[in-house]
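User: Assemble these into one structure.

Assistant: Restating your components, then the assembled model:
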Amino acid sequence: MNEKQIRGLIEDVRGGKLARRDFMVKLVSLGVTAPMAGHLLLNAGIAQAQTPSTYKPTKRGGGGALKVLWWQGATLLNPHFATGTKDQDGSRIFYEPLASWDKDGNLVANLAAEIPSATNGGLSKDGKSVIWKLKRGVTWHDGKPFTSADVVFNWEYASDPATSAVTIGSYKEMKVEAIDSHTVKITFNKVTPFWATPFVGVQGMLIPKHLFEAYKGAKSREAPNNLKPVGTGPYKFTDFTPGDMVRGAINTTYHQANKPFFDSIEMKGGGDAVSAARAVLQTGEYDFAWNLQVEDEILVKLEAGGKGKVVIIPSGDIEFIQCNFTDPAVEVDGERSSIKTKHPILTDPAVRQALSLLVDRASIQQFIYGRAGVGTADFINNPPRYRSTANKPEFNIDKAMGILEAAGWKKGGDGVREKGGKKLKLLYQTSVNQPRQKTQAIVKQACQKAGIDIELKAVTGAVFFSSDVANPDTYTKLYSDLQMFTTTMNAPDPEIFMNQYCSWEFATKANKWQGRNATRWSNPEYDKAFRAAEGELDPVKRAALFIKMNDMVVQDHAVIPVVSRPRARGANLKLRYSESGWDSDFWALQDWYREA
Amino acid sequence: MTLSGTYILRRVLIALPSLLGISVVLFTVLALAPGDPFGDIVSNPNIPAEVAANLRKKFGMDDPVMVRYFRWLLAMLQGDWGFSFASRIDVDTLILQRLPTTLLVVGSSQILALLIALPVGVYAATRPYSLFDQIANTLTFVGFSLPTFFTGLMLILVFSIQLDWLPFVYRADITSTGWHFYWDHLKQTIMPVTVLALFQAASWTRYVRSAALDVVKLDYVTTARSKGLKESVVVLKHVVRNAMIPVVTLVALQVPAIFGGAIVTEQIFRVPGIGSLLISAILANDTPVIMAVTFVFSCLVIFFNLLADILYAWLDPRIALS
């Protein structure tokens, strides 16, 4: 789809010919994230559909305790230091951003009075500034008013390198100023088509100026409130044991009427995913459980307990196989898989195409992942209802053999194909993880039939995913021919996600293998498109560029998608809540309630 | 009794170099182990690389191992246990938060184990190869052959899922008040304590039995019986007292384990004890926490070893410590 077609679609939405939702579906299936697609409409001045509220309780409180299980307990409660989702979720109970992402990628206001748009004057024409109007009458849990000074402070706090905030990426290269007590203006150093990063979502939770002011910069770790959050959220802090328990009590002055429903919240940590699933689905001891990474077969059995159900949340995460475009067997300047070499086998497009035909995604989904892994041929992994119909996952050994045969790979005496004296032998590595080892076995079997000899290797996760420069088995080194893991799409904008195929992102010895491009695939066209997208002011042109980039990677079989990994949560049958794959599980915690 | 001050002093002085040795080994192994506490930050493309570099500098992780070790040792000598990378608070706060639960759960399981092992072991020894002895023997075999994760899951299956009597998620801070508070605590403690106690009781029973059996056969017991003493007096005053000498040391050596927590059982029941703190610290590569927990544990082992030796001499004056 090109720029013109996207513009046509936007006009169709404006004219009422195309439903907003269908527009999102179309764009998302082409490799654009839902939040980005929502942005296109916002920038075109089409107001977002207000999601109708499904919140039924008519008074605040009275709902008893809400008990949730996170099998990895929160270890700290300052959102600017929160590294994993566990810490972000723990913080999100107490802290709120200006706006959050719902499951369709729409912005929903929390501490903002309204979402900035072209029509309400929040967005400037040059794409360099955003004006946020803050909600009035909001108070922190200690009674102090929430004003624009707090918002500005969060920018100062996070953007100060001495603070070492993990949110710094969302706050550098911009200036934030208060226009009046309830209006802030963000001025970006460069044109920023996707402006909803600072103060939005998990990176955007706001901490109070009056309690953290003295602890900006190097003293950040000494702040007593790092462990005692004082926010604006629906629950007030009660107590916290790192790794074990976060507790909160109802905020009776919460800024939304009749909310929240529950009198207290308990977020219990520790244990394992299976017993967490059991406590929610089978015994009903808990109301909600995070990240049920459990074989689907077990989940189905536990659901038969009748207390809860598994909620599948579409996400951007994908399990995929990367092909190495450099030679892992040759060492150049003390570095294997050097960009100065070429892979003797995998640079042949026929081999990559054949490999992609030899991944039996249907069996992998059916026998290994179940609902938690949906077979896909797309790299951009999305909710199933958004999935493109253009690329169908195909498993066809005969076709693969035909392609190899035509490319000159002939079967040798031992059943392994060879061409020009090179045997079709590949080393396929992944991390130690039962579903991954099973997937490896399924792929190996099919490859064997097609005459490709696959050697399997499993590296312990602590090593595979580490950034240890001295260890040869890390995934960024890719000292093997193929490797498989899950890559996550956390940001609502695809820019950071797509930079992993840029040539300047090659993981090399020079950058201590911190580059993101481990396959070392490159394409000058792709690089050009990415650079263009980075500086593209027009969001429509930008979306078209991302779609083009996505096609380049997938159609060249640089990577072989296996299954998209929706997130599985467990919820009590009576619990009413709204999920989102683009934000924290608690993005709408104030709306959670229990049906009688 | 020839227990002298110089002996104790000598033992303490011997213990010091071994503690130093242990700390060097622990520190080096942890420094060499793969993994990076800031791995999450490094691999997250949304976080600039400078953040991780900055944190490493802040926590002094770029210095050579030797420098880090001596810095750690110096701090430890001054009572500073370090600063957790993952939680960004002092390690001693973290450990102290977990200690009461561990002491309660593991401690009461040890007491329960002792309450089972002592009477059963002694009774079995006084009637060797009787039916009671045979049953006790079989049960102890079963008891220490079954790993705790198995008995734990069995109990959950029966008491939480089938019967729905007991909760299987342990909560350290129960909100209910009054009688309910104690009742809820009791309910959630039953299963983890039983699992740990049965395992421990099984091996202790066998130990008590064999220790008592050795004594029962001795001449002075026969003499006591022939004097016409009541059986209960013979057993309690003459047999048990002497048979307890090795048992006491065994129990003393087991005490450090109470502080170490029980990793597997704590994980199954989500007991927020030292064991689960250790395992999550290991998974998060939170070196200061791992170091503090393991080192404190080593100190306790050495201390209780010393204590066992002293107890031994005190209980049995024939043993001269010099």
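Residues 404 and 478 of chain A are 24 Å apart (CA to CA).
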